[in-house]
Write a structure and sequence with these properties.
The chain is mainly alpha-helical. It has one domain. It contains two helices and two strands; from the N terminus they run E-E-H-H. Strands 1-2 form a two-stranded antiparallel sheet. Strand 1 and strand 2 form a beta hairpin. Helix 1 runs antiparallel to helix 2. The chain is rod-shaped, with a radius of gyration of 26 Å. The protein binds zinc ion.
C-alpha cells in the first residue's frame, strides 16, 4: 500500500482509498494505478515467458551442436541426426522468437 498526495489538498492518502480522508475528493489515480500494475504484470509475464522459450531454444541448439560434434565421426548415427535436428529446431525457434518479439506478436 503506497501513500500518495491528494490531488485537491495534498493530504497524504492511501493509493487504495477512494476518497481523500481530509477533503473527500475522489482519488482518481486508484484505477489508473491498478490498470498500470496489471499492464506491467502482463508485460513482465510475457517477457518472462519469452525468455524461457528463448532459453529452451538456445539449450536445444547447444545440445544439438554437442551431439553433432560428439557423433561427427559417424554421420549415419542417430546421435548425429538428432544433433542436426536439435540444432535446427533451436536455431529456427530462436529466430522465430526474435522476429515475434520485434513484431510484438508474442502473446
Ligand atoms: Zn484531499
Amino acid at each position: 500500500m503506497a501513500l500518495i498526495n491528494c490531488p485537491a489538498c495534498n493530504n497524504r492518502v492511501s493509493s487504495r482509498a477512494e476518497y481523500c480522508s481530509n477533503c473527500k475528493a475522489p482519488i482518481s489515480s486508484k484505477n489508473d494505478e491498478a490498470t498500470d500494475r496489471a499492464n506491467e504484470r502482463t508485460r513482465w509475464n510475457r517477457r518472462k515467458r519469452q525468455q524461457n522459450y528463448a532459453f529452451l531454444a538456445i539449450l536445444s541448439f547447444v545440445v544439438g551442436i554437442g551431439l553433432f560434434w560428439k557423433f561427427r565421426e559417424d554421420q549415419t548415427s542417430l546421435g548425429f541426426e538428432a544433433g542436426i535436428w536439435f540444432a535446427a529446431v533451436g536455431f529456427f525457434g530462436y529466430a522465430v522468437l526474435r522476429i515475434m518479439g520485434i513484431l510484438n506478436k508474442f502473446k
